[in-house]
Amino acid sequence: SCSSLGCFECCVKCLGVLPYASLFATILLYAGVALFCGCGHEALSGTVTILQNYFEVVRAPVETLDVLTMIDILKYVIYGIAAAFFVYGILLMVEGFFTTGAIRDLYGDFKITACGRCVSAWFIMLTYIFFLAWLGVTAFTSLPVFMYFNIWTICQNTTVVEGANLCLDLRQFGKGRARVAALVLDMTFHLFVCALAGAGAAVIAMVHYLMVLSANWAYVKDACRMQKYEDIKSKEEQELHDIHSTRSKERLNAYT
Predict the structure, then answer these.
(1) Which of 23, 35, 151, 199 could connect to 138 by a Cys-Cys bridge, CB 3.0–4.6 Å?
(2) What b-and-e string marks burial along 9-40, b requiring 16 or more CB atoms within 10 Å of the CB?
(3) C-alpha distances in angstroms, 110 versus 126, 152, 212, 237?
(4) Which of 202, 25, 32 is nearest to 96 (CA)?
(5) How many C-beta atoms surround the C-beta of residue 182 within 10 A?
(6) Is residue 195 within 8 Å of residue 31, measured between CB atoms?
(7) Predicted confidence (pLDDT) at residue 174 exceeds the cutoff of 70
(8) Do residues 135 and 203 make contact, with C-beta atoms less than 8 angstroms apart?
(9) What is the pLDDT of residues 73-88, one digit of tens each?
(10) pLDDT reported for residue 256
(11) pLDDT value at position 234?
């Protein structure tokens, strides 16, 4: 208890309880997910603006699945990703707290149950699935980055080289609108790049979580073996004590 310690010693003891590996992975996960969701959402909004204002794409009826409706669906998927991984990061932090050795030193020995081992194994499996999912998200996000990079390069060449008539000639919108279109395209491209960086950070966080969870699983496994050894040793000592007590009583009875 910190009540018997000074302020400095109590702070040091509390800092020793923190699972720093899980904390680092959680911060990296939150930063990556926030960057991916925020920039991805704004990049999709910019894409809608470009399609509607400069390519004359109109929204189809409600029962028809068009490009704009698919972009709206992707926005809702981003909302779900943000909420889900916020909760998942908290769960992994809690798991890190309960499997670190500092918690055992603070609260005394705890029992490693079969449920605890199953929870650790379940987190490893789930994190590996999320790792593969984020790899897919990273690959999917790289597609619009590649596409926007090509268009952005063409637009740069078109607006700089006089008399060039390449794939996308922004001069057809007029001088003012061409400048606005170039700015929107440039902003959308950089937002997709930031979203790709966020997805990459989430992948690195998942890899870090896998290393942490694997180490925690090894600790739980060793602690379980040590617990079984201590139980067997305690049982054998109790049996030896009972045998010695019985023999002592028999000798005492024989003497009397």
Answers:
(1) 199
(2) eeeeeeeeeebebbeebbebbbebbbbbbbbb
(3) 25, 59, 20, 21
(4) 25
(5) 17
(6) no
(7) no
(8) yes
(9) 999 999 999 999 999 9
(10) 61
(11) 77
- CA–CA–CA angle 85, 88, 91 (5° rounding): 155
Alpha-carbon gap, residue 63 to 75, rounded angstroms? 19
Mean pLDDT of 181-192: 83
Contact 198, 36 (CB under 8 A): yes
How many Å is the Cα radius of gyration of the chain?
Answer: 31
Report how far residue 75's alpha carbon sits from residue 68's, in angstroms, rounded to the nearest whole number: 11
Write down the pLDDT at residue 111.
Answer: 52
In this predicted model, what pLDDT tens digit does every residue of 208-231 receive, in sequence order?
999 988 887 777 777 666 666 667
Burial annotation 204-221 (CB, 10 A radius, 16+ → b, else e) = ebbbbbbebbeebbebbe
In this structure, are residues 151 and 168 in contact, taking their beta carbons and an 8 Å threshold? yes
Residue in 40, 55, 210, 45 with CA at minimum distance from that of residue 142: 40
Burial of 195: CB neighbours in 10 Å, binned 0-12, 13-18, 19+: buried
pLDDT at 208: 94
- pLDDT, position 94: 85
CA distance 176 to 179: 5
Write down the pTM of the prediction: 0.76
| Residue 143, C-beta contacts closer than 8 angstroms, at least 6 positions apart | none
- Give whole-number Cα distances, 250 to 246, 255, 256, in Å: 6, 9, 10
- 203 CB-contact burial (10 Å; exposed 0-12 / middle 13-18 / buried 19+): buried
